[in-house]
Amino acid sequence: MQPWFRKRFPLFFEEGTFEIHDVWDQEKQITIAESVKKLKTGGGCMDPVCLKPVTDDIRQQCIELRPRDDQLRFVASNLNSLQKAAEEKTCYPYAIYADDVMVGFALFDEEPYPEDGCFWIVRFMIDRNYQGRGYGKAGLSAVLRKQKEHPACTVIRISHVPDNTAANRLYKGLGFKETGQFINGELVLDLEV
């Protein structure tokens, strides 16, 4: 790295460590050091979106997320999903955040589902007010990254109502392939890891 670059931009990688200096981010009007502190304390996210476990303090906000009216038949309510999470041992609920704003919800396996050994994404939705901004792809990518962290994750499964063409396009765009199998009337797609 050029010496002038270090003087001008004192945020750099050195021998595998990340050195933080107080650099002003004019676009976000915060310092990089403040951003890192926010991350370490569980607030905010550096990626376009991040996942946060649904806790009692954000549960109601999560329940209030809604798809568009024409999408209601495609996805169960988040209240129903949170109730399902309480019944499933492998499934955990997460809020999807863009910066500090909750934009969606996901319910997915963090360990193999006992019946088939796959990691399922049971529910996934983006609130109607935040659709069309790339949060669906970014949120689903964050879920996939989290599932792939588990050493036993070899297949990730997701399903959707057959005529939900937007979901089908999103899932296939991230590498899922239709299996030809239907479960409870929904088309199943697999992603081999």
UniProtKB/TrEMBL annotation:
Listed Pfam families: Acetyltransf_1
Bilayer-spanning residue ranges: none
Record PROSITE patterns: GNAT
InterPro entries: Acyl_CoA_acyltransferase, GNAT_dom, N-acetyltransferase
Domain of life: Bacteria
N-acetyltransferase domain segment(s): 49-193
PANTHER family for this protein: GNAT FAMILY, PUTATIVE (AFU_ORTHOLOGUE AFUA_3G00765)-RELATED-RELATED, N-ACETYLTRANSFERASE DOMAIN-CONTAINING PROTEIN
Name of the featured protein: N-acetyltransferase domain-containing protein
Natural source organism: Paenibacillus cineris
